[in-house]
Write a structure and sequence with these properties.
Layout: H1 2-29, E1 33-38, E2 46-51, E3 54-60, H2 68-86, E4 93-98, E5 117-122, E6 125-130, H3 144-153, E7 158-162, H4 168-175, E8 180-185, H5 188-201, E9 208-212, H6 215-218, E10 227-232, E11 237-238, E12 247-248, H7 249-263, E13 264-274, E14 291-293, E15 310-315
Parallel strand pairs: 3-4, 7-8, 7-10, 8-9, 10-13
Antiparallel strand pairs: 1-2, 2-3, 5-6, 11-12, 13-15, 14-15
Helix pairs in contact: 1-2, 3-4, 4-5
Length: 316
């Protein structure tokens, strides 16, 4: 019993220490959505994120010897600690169970049908999040800095957002003064979400266009030099029945990048990101040497030492 108590105390101390540090930085930078914990202690395999006055907690699925009743008690104690540390009431803590997988294979997997959405702010922009229905919330916090980089580069640019998910990069590009933004995804649900995110922030009908398509096939139809800035953040692997081919990012990244480069104007830039932990960029297969690893430059303060994605800036 003492050992059991000690583990909860250990979790509380760890979460408290991290939360104090990260929440101060977030407040200083005017950021309301940030990550505070990611499996720091093996006995508490959570991913915990703050979304303003709400908290998202994903419990990684694992082998354990707890009965259902014991697990429920363990979660109840854990939730109480999260409330004590963050000051967020238990009613505003949203829990999910997820399998630990590389990349974002599960991003289109629905877990419920509650349709309880909230609007949050990031850098003066508004985004719809859903903390109940999907494994992911609708806003990938690890790309906060990358989004700002796109905003800074988007002035008067024609922008293509591939595997656009809920369109956060598209919103940032429009905020940066892009002349045209095209969002492409295979999911009609997420394209609709992207459209609603755009509408939340702008009245720019005609500047933003959503395209429902398999990105692998779509890129082959894009006219040469028709975009100035492309964002591509694909899943590590996808075998969706709606796709004509299976996507394996390690195997397919060279052809994807080359198709993007063909679609770019002479001074164009591609921001390419992947969550595949063992990813190796095959520079020999690319027609440019103007490649910069910007992973460190795009890692937000709340992901330092825990970011598994890689990010590259590739110019023609």
């Amino acid at each position: 019993m003492q050992q059991h108590f000690d583990k909860f105390l250990m979790f509380k101390n760890r979460l408290g220490k991290v939360y104090r540090h990260i929440s101060k930085q977030a407040k200083r930078q005017g950021i309301g959505c940030y990550r505070i914990y990611d499996h720091d202690i093996p006995e508490f395999p959570f991913l915990i994120e703050v979304y303003e006055d709400k908290c998202y907690v994903a419990e990684y699925k694992r082998q354990h010897d707890l009965s259902e009743e014991e697990h429920e008690r363990w979660w109840s104690n854990s939730k109480q600690i999260i409330t004590e540390v963050t000051g967020i009431s238990e009613e505003k803590i949203y829990q999910k169970l997820r399998k630990r997988k590389e990349g974002r294979l599960n991003q289109y997997q629905k877990t419920a049908e509650v349709k309880q959405e909230f609007v949050v702010q990031e850098n003066g922009l508004q985004f719809l999040i859903n903390l109940r229905d999907y494994l992911d919330t609708g806003l990938f916090l690890d790309h906060r800095s990358t989004r700002q980089m796109v905003r800074d580069a988007a002035k008067n640019k024609r922008v293509l957002n591939l595997f656009c998910y809920t369109g956060s990069f598209s919103v940032y590009a429009l905020a940066g003064g892009a002349s045209k933004v095209t969002s492409v995804d295979l999911s009609k649900t997420y394209l609709s979400w992207a459209d609603r995110n755009v509408q939340l922030n702008f009245d720019k009908e005609g500047i933003h266009q959503s395209v429902h398509a398999d990105v692998l096939m779509y890129l082959k139809t894009v006219p040469k030099e028709s975009y100035d800035l492309i964002i591509m953040d694909p899943p590590t692997f996808s075998n969706s029945k709606r796709m004509e081919a299976i996507l394996d990012i390690q195997r397919d990244h060279v052809s994807l990048i080359n198709n993007c480069l063909a679609a770019l104007s002479p001074e164009g830039v591609l921001y390419f990101s992947t969550n595949y932990r063992r990813f190796q960029l095959d520079t020999n297969g690319l027609p440019t040497t103007n490649i910069k690893d910007i992973t460190a430059a795009t890692t937000p303060f709340d992901f330092l030492g825990k970011l598994h994605r890689k990010c590259f800036k590739i110019e023609k």
